[in-house]
Design a protein that fits this description.
Protein name: Cytochrome b5 heme-binding domain-containing protein
Number of helices: 3
Order of helices and strands: EHEEHHEE
Largest sheet: 5 strands, mixed
Bound molecules: protoporphyrin IX containing FE
Number of strands: 5
Strand content: 15-25%
Structural class: alpha+beta
Radius of gyration: 14 Å
InterPro entries: Cyt_B5-like_heme/steroid-bd, Cyt_B5-like_heme/steroid_sf
Length: about 140
């Protein structure tokens, strides 16, 4: 089976620095995410570099398989050693550079995009290349 190794790791691609504290952004707590993932058997929220995404559309299409996708929010994944530390560009589960690049481009679009009726930044879809699937960027995680 193919393994995505840390050879693809490109820390400069990380999106964490793009975001500031005073954005009009939807905020989620870890329990919001855990509760959502428990309550909706077909819905799945994940955290990528501190941004909360609806990854339901990836459930049946993640090229690395369902098991790995479902581990996304666990502390064994990612680089922080804590829950919700997943990144496309840091850590042993790093993905191909094109995936991180698309992600960063969409996070920038999200952060500079329109606001919805609630005054918060509107959700934005991020479609990955090929059969890579898609996620919807919703907001930010507050630990
Ligand atoms: C929301 C979280 C995730 C998203 C949106 C996502 C997305 C993707 C995408 C678009 C690809 C295809 C392109 C590429 O390899 O870069 C991919 C492949 C892959 N992903 Fe993920 N991924 C997520 C989480 C994870 C996690 C947590 C792991 C491992 C623990 C993982 C392991 C893999 C592997 C092994 C492949 C390669 C499959 C192959 O070579 O055929 N992914 N993922």
């Amino acid at each position: 089976m193919a393994v995505v190794s840390s050879d693809h790791s490109t820390p400069g691609m990380s999106c964490e620095a793009l975001s500031s504290a005073d954005e009009p952004i939807r905020i989620f707590t870890p329990s919001d995410i855990e509760e959502y993932n428990t309550a909706y058997s077909e819905g799945f929220y994940a955290v990528i570099e501190g941004f909360v995404v609806d990854a339901t559309a990836m459930v049946n299409s993640h090229p690395g398989g369902l098991k790995k996708l479902m581990q996304t929010n666990l502390k064994v994944i990612g680089y922080t050693g804590k829950d919700f530390g997943f990144s496309f560009s840091k850590g042993r589960n790093a993905h191909f550079p094109g995936t991180g690049k698309r992600w960063k481009q969409k996070v920038k679009e999200f952060l500079t995009g329109e606001k919805g009726e609630d005054g918060k930044l509107k959700s934005l879809q991020c479609v990955f290349d090929g059969e890579g699937g898609s996620v919807i960027i919703l907001g930010k995680l507050q630990l």
